[in-house]
Structures are given as C-alpha cells and as structure tokens.
Amino acid sequence: MKEMKTQVSVWGSRFAMILISWGITSTTPSPAHPLLNPLINRTGSHRGLLLEPQVSFFLSSENFDVESARIPIPNDTSHSRFLFDLNGSIGITDDLFLFGRVSLQSVRVSVLQQSNLSAFGLADQLLGAAYRAWSSESGINLNLQAEATLPAYNNTDAKNAGKAYLGDGTIDVTGAGFLEFPLSASREIYLEGGAGFTYRSKGFSSHIPYVLKLKRDPAVKGLMYEAGVAGQLSLNTDIATDDLAAQNVLNQDRIAGSGGSFLINALNPSFLQVTGRLGYKNRFGQTLYAGALAPLVGTNAAAGITLLVGATLDFGAPPAPPADEADERSTSNRVRSESSRAKAPPLSRRREFTSYDLEAEVLNSNDQLYLVRIDKGSMDGVESGQFFDIFSESTPFARAKVTQVKDDEAILSVIEYFQERSIENGSRARRLVR
Q1: Which residue range is the domain that position 162 belongs to?
Q2: What's the chain look like in SS3?
Q3: How confident is the model at residue 11 (pLDDT cuts 50, 70, 90)?
C-alpha cells in the first residue's frame, strides 16, 4: 500500500521549490491587497505539486469613508489593476502543505484633467505553510495556517519616477485557523469558516481577516463552486491614527501612488465583501473556473469589483475512471477521514467479527482512494454503515465500510488492513455479522 511518486510529481516538486525560492530571492522585504486576495484555506487533497494560474481585473472609482459611506475618489479618479498570479502548493504529507505565489501587476490610475499614472512589475509575493491539525470521523477538519507577504517593489522609486504604486510596501504576517463542516454524505459539499490575525509593518494597523463560504469540491469530476463572504476587521492600531502630520503624509502619498484610492495607505481599513467562484473539474483533477468579488460595506477602504479566471492543475492526481464509473467513486472528498487523500487505514491484527452472511465480488478498487466497488447493492440487502471483510483465498486481509449504495452495487471505504497488500479485482468481499 506504499505510495510511489511518479516522475511527473518528482519534477513538479522540484519546479515548485524553484518557484518558491524565486519568490524569496526576488523580493525586498503587503499582502497583495486583502481586498483583492482575501484569506484562503490552503490545505488540500493533493500529494505533490499543484499549480493555480489566475488572472484578475480590479476596477474602482469609489472609496468607503470613515462613516462607511461610498464617496467618489477625488478628481473623478478611476483605479484599475490587472493581476497575474501563479500560486504553487506542494503536499509534503497528507496533512502538511507548503505554498507560495509569484504575482505581477499592471496598474493604471486615470485622473480627470491630469496626467495618468501607470506601473507594471512584480507585486506582493506570498510564502506559507498549512497543516491539517485534526479530523473527526464525521468529516470535520481543523486546519492551521501561517503565511507572509513580501513586496517585490519600491514605492520611493515609483514616486520619484512618477509611477503608480503596486502596493503599500509593507510586510504582512498572518496566522489563521479554518474549520470545515461536511453538509452531504459524500462530503463534497461543506461549510468552511476561518479567521486569523495579521501583523503589518511600517506602523500600519493589525487586523483580523475572516471568511465564511459554502463550497462544493468534487472528489473525482464535476461542478465546483463556492459562495460566501470575506473581509477584515481593523484593530485601529495605526500609528497615524492620532497624528495629523502623519495622516497628511499618508494622504499625500496615497494621491501620488493611487490618485486617492484607499487601496493604498488606508488608515485602519475594514471591509466586508461577497465572493464566488464557479468551475468544472475534469477526470484528470484539473479545474477551470471564473469568479468575482464585490464589496458590501467598508470603512476607510476601497470600493471596487474584482473579476477573475483561473485554473487548478493537480499534477499528482490519478486519473478518474471514465464515464459511469466516475460517479461511483465520488464518495471520497478532499482529505476527510474517508476522502481521496485520507490517512492510510491502520494495519491491525485484531478481527472482532468472524461470521459472514453475504458474499460479493470486488469489481474494481483504488489503493490511493482506499475505495472498493462490489457487485451487491440495496436489492441484496446492502446498506450504508455495514462492514465487509476483503479476502485473499480463505484469509481476510482488509475491512471496509459501506458508504454508498445503488440497486446492484455499492462503494466501500477501507478502514483497516490485517495484511499489507493491494486489493485486486475479483477478490471476495463478505459481509460481517455481529
């Protein structure tokens, strides 16, 4: 039952490490603004390399003021950004993930009756690690995450050259936790909530980022979607809060770098926005998607809409069975206890059951998903929650639990091994009697 890395995943891992290393060495010590890149749960179901290229467009002509009212940016200014992000993640184990992002931005600031500002270059780069700290048998997961964003630009140089700013130029460090609650028997539909703490350099206010989403992540293939809210709550610790001179400097710098948009140098910003993505996952584990972010409320924050398109490329995902076989394996989801990347079932010598009352044949199995399909179903009295032993000749070597039932067949999830061996097509499965 030992997993073997393919040549693709080996080279993929090397490439991802090069990618992340470039993210480190190319930076001079913000997040890509949290309005554009809100808090995201980075744990996954991949073992090996996963890449996510994404292109997004942000457009804003308004700010939320200190009273949370929408007001135009001064001088009828409009602020637009194209973001070109390449996210990379490596599943070191089933529960530990390292991730990073290389980000480019193209910025344009149009000011009425004045010369326009523009800029293009490396933006805020991301590095971090995520860990699945706890999983329950019911599929509830607790994930912990730490990340840092580093600016790969210099605002002083941009100001001297009369160019727009690519960001605030701060270092941001975030620690966060996420809870996942399955809402379906297959565990493909679930509720995800998370919150954290972000420290910002240069005296900017720390804040609490948060997110709440309803998500569907198909285990094999199918429709992917997520919808929810994301935002941040400022702790109002900005050193310029009670310093009028410092506020004037921030305001002048904001006008110089963004035409007055609170996307740059905002004082104690808070906001709440709706987020959504819709896509399709193919049988090879690759997903194409489109999405949007739109503000609901805010204080001292930019008010703008973001549109995005992207893809998720899982280089370690085994191809799913074609056509009708795919749905029969959809009981596994992400990395929950009965999921596609769940921890391997334990090797045990004990067997509480010794009597059997029904025999079935194993039609096919997957040693990575720990799933087995048998040729008996509800017409034969098979029900979810029943247990079967898998036999090699006259000796049982694995135990599995029924997770999905059709009329003439069923899906079982392996929960325990008595011997370290693979389950072959044609093996016998016998239902246990207590």
Answers
A1: 7-314
A2: CCCCCCHHHHHHHHHHHHHHHHHHHCCCCCCCCCCCCCCCCCCCCCCCEEEEEEEEEEEEEEEECCCCCEEECHHHCEEEEEEEEEEEEEECCCCEEEEEEEEEEEEEEECCCCCCEEEEEECEEEEEEEEEEEECCCCCEEEEEEEEEEECCCHHHHHHCCCCCCCCCCCEEEEEEEEEEECCCCCCEEEEEEEEEEEECCCCCCEEEEEEEEEECCCCCEEEEEEEEEEEEECCCCCCCCCHHHHHHHHHHHHHHHCCCCCCCCCCCEEEEEEEEEEEECCCCCEEEEEEEEEEEEECEEEEEEEEEEEEEECCCCCCCCCHHHHCCCCCCCCCCCCCCCCCCCECCCCCCCEEEEEEEEEEEECCCCEEEECCCHHHCCCCCCEEEEEECCEEEEEEEEEEECCCCEEEEEEEECCCCCCCCCCEEEEEEC
A3: very low
Domain membership of residue 413 (yes or no) is yes
pTM above 0.85, yes or no: no
Is 226 inside any structural domain?
yes
Q: What is the pLDDT of residues 405-424, one digit of tens each?
A: 999 999 999 988 888 788 88
pLDDT digits (tens, 9 = 90+) for 34-79: 777 889 999 887 668 899 999 999 999 999 999 999 999 988 899 9
How many domains would you assign to the chain? 2
Q: Are residues 146 and 186 in the same domain?
A: yes
Same domain, 84 and 223: yes
* CATH number of the domain to which 45 belongs: 2.40.160.40
